[in-house]
Structures are given as C-alpha cells and as structure tokens.
Amino acid sequence: MKPSQKGYTLIELVTVLLIMALLGCGVQIGNRMVKEVTLKAKASEIVKGIEYIKQSAAVTGNTYAIICFENRILFRKLPHDTLYKVQLGQNIRVPAYMTGEHFFKFKGTMAPSKGGTLILKDKSLRKQARITVGIATGKVRVYYETI
C-alpha cells in the first residue's frame, strides 16, 4: 500500500483471505486425522486386551470376560476382578444394545463361549471399528467402515 492510500487493494484482501482459508482447512484436516488415529488406537488397545484374556484363560483355566459400557470397556477375571479398563474417549461410543453383561467370555480355551462383533462408533468422524471374534478359533479381526 502506498503512503497516500487509505485502504487495501483487492489483491491484498484476496491474499489475506486465501491464507486464512488455508489455515482453517489445515486445522480441520489435522483434527480429523487425530480422531482417526484415536479410533484406531482404541480398537488396537481392545484387541490386545482380548488377546491377553484369551491367553490367560487358556493358561490358568479361569473364566475371563469383556464387559462393555457406553464409554468404557472392562476386562475382568470373573467373578469381580477387573484387570484392565479402556476409556473410549470423548467421541467414541459402544452402541447401547451392546452394553451390559459379559460381551465375550473365555473359559479355559482360546475360543470364546460365543463369537460376535464389538462396535466402536465415532459419530463426529462418521466411522466405526468392528472388532470380530470368531467362535471356533477365537481369531480377532478389526474392520474400519464409514457409517
């Protein structure tokens, strides 16, 4: 801007708006990436917990279970010894129909008493992690999906 001018040129205004838009997009992209990494980290933590109680049940012959709540998951040696707790975080939730008594139970073998799928949903990200445990083998798999 020249000293005798009182305003900004159109090019200066457009340049400032472009820089602000790029910074805003960068923040949104970074926030989304953090949420995706958090969902994957929580799913990985739960898989490790499942593997741990599966192996513990086979070695000790005791009964171990996973109990789901809306915002946390407990890994227990039954009847009441909580071994490990996974706090899911601000946006990640377990659907209400999956919460309650012993979602997966292992007793003396590497295979669960019943197979099934545990779902972790992040509504703000519109993604979910499906953690599936096979009934015959006890094999744990994770699938990530857009909802």
UniProtKB/TrEMBL annotation:
Lineage: Bacteria, Bacillati, Bacillota, Clostridia, Lachnospirales
Name of the protein: Prepilin-type N-terminal cleavage/methylation domain-containing protein
Transmembrane segments: 7-29
Pfam families membership: N_methyl
InterPro entries: N_methyl_site (IPR012902)
Keywords: Membrane, Transmembrane, Transmembrane helix
